[in-house]
Amino acid sequence: MSDKQTVKIFDTTLRDGEQSPGASMNLSEKMEIAQALVDLNVDIIEAGFPIASPGDFEAVREIASNIRGATICGLARCNERDIDRAWEALKTAQASRIHVFLATSAIHREFKLKMTREEIIQRAVEGVKRAAGYCDDIEFSPEDAVRTEPDFLCEVVEAAIKAGATTVNIPDTVGYATPQHMGKVIIDLKNRVPNIDQAIISIHCHNDLGLAVANSLAAVEVGAGQIECTINGIGERAGNCSLEEVVMALRTRSDYYQHSTKINTERLVPTSRLVSSITGLQVQRNKAIVGRNAFAHEAGIHQDGMLKERTTYEIMRPEDVGLSKTDLVLGKHSGRAALADRAKALGYHLSGEQLQVVFEEFKKLADKKKEIYDGDISSLCEQEIRGEASHEWSLVSLEVSSGTGKAPQVKMTLRHGEEEKSAEVSEGDGPIDAAFWAIERITGLELTCKDFQVRSATLGRDALGEVTVEIESNGSTFRGRGASTDTVEATVKAVLDAVNRILFTAASKS
Ligand code: KIV
Ligand code: ZN
């Protein structure tokens, strides 16, 4: 029997993670991620900020009603409307938590809230009490806690616990802390807040100095019982504490830490890929745990050592984080059951209808390339999962011709509902630029391309090419992703994905 304490993993990919520029997700995407988080075995899923928009409310409500196996949490400011709305969204969950927050640092009090210390305490207490009237699992966050005067932080935390907070979360909202500093903040709370034992201390670190994981570990070392984090570390600015890194640090250094988590670490890589695909935020190659190079050994000396004894250069086993050694190959003659099996093993929860669409796309792909790898299947599943928005505009046909010293020519037909619209363009800086012009002409939207990336889904020159675009429209950024063995077609799909998100966001705001 292990005498380690279990640290709760509070995942905020769907709330703080979604605050990454351009990372907004639609309902079916959020549901897919929520299910993946349950498969990963996180303790708490922060599903959104219900008052923020009708779309956020709907997502929290759907997740609360349908996802089982984790506590579902909704964020609220310390006011009646926010808290009531959060509860309205959460009330059908198997287990729900309301997370109320209020800034406490002098900078926020003075410039943002224009409130005195006394008013802050009163508002925090009222907020926690109102939330506690609805459910018995209440988290309170003094926003910008790390830059709050220590005496005042202790006072607020004590008052929040007295009012009914069962978890007190200490956010490093601007990523200002360093590990030793963070350790001191937690020790201080433990030593000076008389009722601190009545609540779990949680830690919420942003990564502005690249220290979010280190700061979270420092807090756990001195008694924090919950870590707030996101898949791939996505989030505002430089992001949040990365779930996969902090979990694997606790597991790999279990000789040092007295804490473990319940995370099913074999789901880390598939979950990372799912979130990357849905948000369009690519994972850097050398990212710890889930980057493509995280387990690649290049140097001859390392390879030699590895062959003699794996632990010479490897502190974790790739299979422990879900990197399969063998890519199971499917082909033209593989049936729907084999595809369904593989998709399930890769972590996709497809409905019968979705599986049918993926199977049809799989057959088309198998006609073009002999062997279909896991990366191809992931790509096809993800295209279908991102389907909700894509019902707006879709590609019907595309003809492209280009050559050295020749103006590109693009003939394109798109479908919008029952209607089909076409355009022919023979201008632009190349076929991709011409394709953008054609989409603008057909949809009537002005699109500014801020970023464009292509990469292959698998090995081989016949691999699916995955294109990610970042499009600016009306001052907001939207990402889109598309895959095809033809890069121009993949680009068109990616731009349409972004266009559909623009329209979806506009519709959910109106
Ligand atoms: O970073 C932060 O302060 C937050 C709070 C709402 C917890 O995300
Ligand atoms: Zn945050």
Give a verbal description of the structure.
The protein is α/β, with parallel strands linked by helices. The chain has four domains: 5-279, Aldolase class I (TIM Barrel, Alpha-Beta Barrel), CATH 3.20.20; 295-322, no CATH class; 328-387; 390-509, 2-Layer Sandwich (Double Stranded RNA Binding Domain), CATH 3.30.160. The chain contains 17 helices and 18 strands. It has helices spanning 27-40, 54-66, 80-90, 106-113, 117-132, 150-163, 179-192, 212-221, 243-252, 268-279, 300-308, 336-345, 352-368, 374-385, 387-390, 431-443, 487-509, and strands at 5-6, 8-11, 44-48, 71-77, 96-103, 138-143, 167-172, 200-205, 226-229, 259-260, 330-331, 371-372, 393-403, 406-416, 419-425, 448-456, 465-473, 476-484. Strands 2-3-4-5-6-7-8-9 form an eight-stranded parallel beta barrel, surrounded by seven helices. Strands 13-14-15 form a three-stranded antiparallel sheet, covered by helices on one side. Strand 13 and strand 14 (406-416) form a beta hairpin. The longest helix is centred in the last third of the chain and has 23 residues, at 487-509. The structure holds 3-methyl-2-oxobutanoic acid and zinc ion. 3-methyl-2-oxobutanoic acid binds next to strand 6 and strand 7.
